[in-house]
Each structure stands twice: as structure tokens, then as C-alpha cells.
């Protein structure tokens, strides 16, 4: 029973954060990386980048950190693939900062903060809807003081699996005091 309660609480936090709108006029948005195929962004990463494009076009003073290293089977870093996509879609390269060392969400946020130079800047984290809650919790635990999330949709066929798996991840992170 306790576990079912924890699962319900985690899932409701995930869903609540998935539908919240980001703060406007952030200093930075941080787009969390996801797998790329060779040099091309995958569909879930494209969804994240399209949210970033909308935000950057509506908030012209905001800079973007594209965060992701190079994984197995990837010809370039996730950061480079994301930067290429944003430039191809009209974002000037001087607004883009590449963080190309990270391998997971913790590293995405840690290394991005190092590039930004402060965890006190107004920051919007861009990820898929199911991932926003945990990403924001990790950022707050790291000391980010003004953080919100911008949710990208998830590939429809993966929604049930993604949301259930994320609830287990949230519970694990809570148990081990990682968020």
C-alpha cells in the first residue's frame, strides 16, 4: 500500500509539472540531450528543440544551452546535433552555448551551470513532459534558484511506458536523496 501511495504521489507530481508553463524572459534555457541517430536528432529530441525554438523566438533576449555528450552509435555530440537543428531553423549561433560532455540529466545540469556561470540566473529546462519534474528537482537540489520547465510532448506510442518508468525513477531518486 505504501508503495502504491508513493507511486500515485510521484505520478501526480510528474503530470502536474508536465502541463505547467515556463517563466517568460529567462536568461537561459537548457535543452537536455537525448539520443541522436548518427548526426540527426530523434523524434523526442526534435520535440524538445521545437519547444526551444518557440521559446527563443518569443523571448529574444534568452540564450540557450544545448546539453549532451556523444553516446554509442552517435557520430556527433547531442549538443552539436541540437545546435545544428536550431541554426537551421533560424536561431543565431551567438545565442547557442554547447555543453558536450554530459551523459545524464545530473551532468546536463551541472555542466550547463558551469557554462552559464551561475545557478541564480533565471533558467528554463526543456525536456519531454514526463521528465520535467525530476529535472527541476535535480536542478533545485544542485542549487539552481530560479528554475522552471518547458515541456515537450512525448512520442505517443511511448507515453505509458515513459510516465510509468519516470515515476519509478522519481521514487528511487527520493529514496536515495538525489532530489
From TrEMBL:
Protein's UniProt name: DUF218 domain-containing protein
Organism: Butyribacter intestini
GO CC annotations, alphabetized: plasma membrane
Gene Ontology terms: biological process: Gram-negative-bacterium-type cell wall biogenesis; peptidoglycan metabolic process
Listed CDD domains: YdcF-like (cd06259)
Residues annotated as domain DUF218: 27-152
Amino acid at each position: 500500500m505504501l508503495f502504491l501511495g508513493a507511486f500515485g504521489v510521484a505520478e501526480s507530481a510528474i503530470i502536474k509539472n508536465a502541463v505547467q508553463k515556463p517563466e517568460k524572459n529567462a536568461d537561459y534555457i537548457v535543452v537536455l540531450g537525448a539520443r541522436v541517430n548518427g548526426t540527426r536528432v530523434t523524434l523526442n529530441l526534435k520535440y524538445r528543440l521545437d519547444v526551444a525554438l518557440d521559446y527563443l523566438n518569443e523571448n529574444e533576449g534568452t540564450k540557450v544551452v544545448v546539453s549532451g555528450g556523444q553516446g554509442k552509435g552517435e557520430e556527433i555530440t547531442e549538443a552539436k546535433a541540437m545546435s545544428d537543428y536550431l541554426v537551421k531553423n533560424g536561431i543565431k549561433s551567438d545565442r547557442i552555448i554547447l555543453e558536450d560532455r554530459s551523459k545524464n540529466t545530473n551532468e546536463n545540469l551541472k555542466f550547463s551551470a558551469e557554462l552559464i556561470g551561475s545557478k541564480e540566473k533565471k533558467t528554463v529546462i526543456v525536456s519531454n513532459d514526463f521528465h520535467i519534474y525530476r529535472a527541476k528537482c535535480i536542478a533545485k537540489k544542485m542549487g539552481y534558484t530560479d528554475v522552471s520547465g518547458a515541456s515537450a510532448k512525448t512520442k505517443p506510442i511511448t507515453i505509458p511506458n515513459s510516465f510509468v518508468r519516470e515515476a519509478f525513477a522519481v521514487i528511487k531518486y527520493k529514496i536515495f536523496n538525489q532530489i
